[in-house]
Amino acid sequence: MRCEKVNFAYYHGLVLREVSLHLGPGERAALIGPNGSGKTTLLRVLSGVLSPQGGRVWLDGRGLSGFSRREIGQRIAVVPQSLEVPFGFTVEEMVLLGRTPYLRPWRGVTGQDRQVAEETMAWVGIAGLSSRLFNELSGGERQQVILAMALAQEPEILLLDEPTVHLDIAHQLAILDLVRRLNQEKGLTVFAAIHDLNLAALYFRRLLLMDRGRLVADGSPQEVLSKERIAEVFGAEVGIQKHPAVDAPQIMLLPRSR
Fold first, then answer.
1. Rounded distance between C-alpha atoms, residue 41 and residue 14, angstroms
2. How far apart are CA 138 and CA 128, in angstroms?
3. What is the pLDDT of residue 88?
4. Tell me, what's the pLDDT at 86?
5. Quick one: which of 5, 23, 95, 192 has the fewest CB in 10 Å?
6. What pLDDT is recorded for position 27?
7. Are the C-beta atoms of residues 248 and 221 closer than 8 Å to each other?
8. Cα–Cα dist 20/6, whole Å
9. How far apart are the first and last CA of the chain?
């Protein structure tokens, strides 16, 4: 997947400005940046939910605008920050919603659809929750179900929008461990907007930094996460040290008044 000089504006002004990037097959990359920098909007453009007002998005050499919604749903899955469900769906019913791009008119869920859902729940580790109501689950369990629903689409590309934002430390690590396994074992191309810079550096080899609608850095965590760049983009003074267990930088927050 790639986009070239993509622009997008809401009624209050331009949000994406000349954004160009390329995601190779099987790549795992994180999108970082301050609140309001355009991360969610970029993911929506890449998923086809929003159409760029300038530039173009390509998927396997073909313009994304030329794909039907069904075709996009069979190639690209999106995991949102949260999902509100007003009905009493069970976990199994939620995961089966991921099969929607494969359903045919006047035909219900097939045995193949149920098999994919069961295999997906087992892979994610939520098979024991299949009969539980989605709205009764904890935040971490809900996020696992949403991830399973995305996997049931059998996509090639997984886009995640702040998948750990409302979770405690243990569930943050569990979700990102799952995402890494998906990339390594199933070969999914993964592109995730991540709020926590330390988690991004731990789990992703490539970071893309956004600031006011533009991509201002693209490289390894060591290349992108410098004290000077963080001060410029986030307006925060930090310290940076090497992680004690893995080859990744870790950011130390410094109080404004010491």
1. 11
2. 14
3. 87
4. 76
5. 5
6. 97
7. yes
8. 7
9. 46
Domains along the sequence of the chain with CATH = 2-253 (3.40.50.300)
* CA–CA distance, 87 with 68 (Å, rounded to integer): 28
SS3 per-residue string spanning the chain = CEEEEEEEEECCEEEEEEEEEECCCCCEEEEECCCCCCHHHHHHHHCCCCCCCEEEEEECCEEHHHCCHHHHHHHEEEECCCCCCCCCCEHHHHHHHHHHHHCCCCCCCCHHHHHHHHHHHHHHCCHHHCCCEHHHCCHHHHHHHHHHHHHCCCCCEEEEECCCCCCCHHHHHHHHHHHHHHHHHHCCEEEEECCCHHHHHHHCCEEEEEECCEEEEEECHHHHCCHHHHHHHHCCCEEEEECCCCCCEEEEECCCCC
**Rounded distance between C-alpha atoms, residue 2 and residue 60, angstroms:** 8
Write phi, then psi, for 163 (nearest 5 degrees).
-70, -15
Instruction: Give the pLDDT score at 149.
Output: 96
> Whole-model pTM?
0.94
Q: How far apart are CA 75 and CA 6, in angstroms?
A: 21
Contact 126, 148 (CB under 8 A): yes
Please name the residue that has the structure tokens 């997947």.
Answer: 1
pLDDT of residue 258: 60
| Chain position carrying tokens 């004690």 | 244
Length of the chain: 258
Structure tokens at 182: 């998906």
Rounded Cα distance between 247 and 116, Å, is 36
pLDDT along the chain (258 residues), means of 10: 95 90 97 95 96 95 94 95 84 95 83 94 95 93 94 96 91 94 95 96 97 96 96 94 93 82
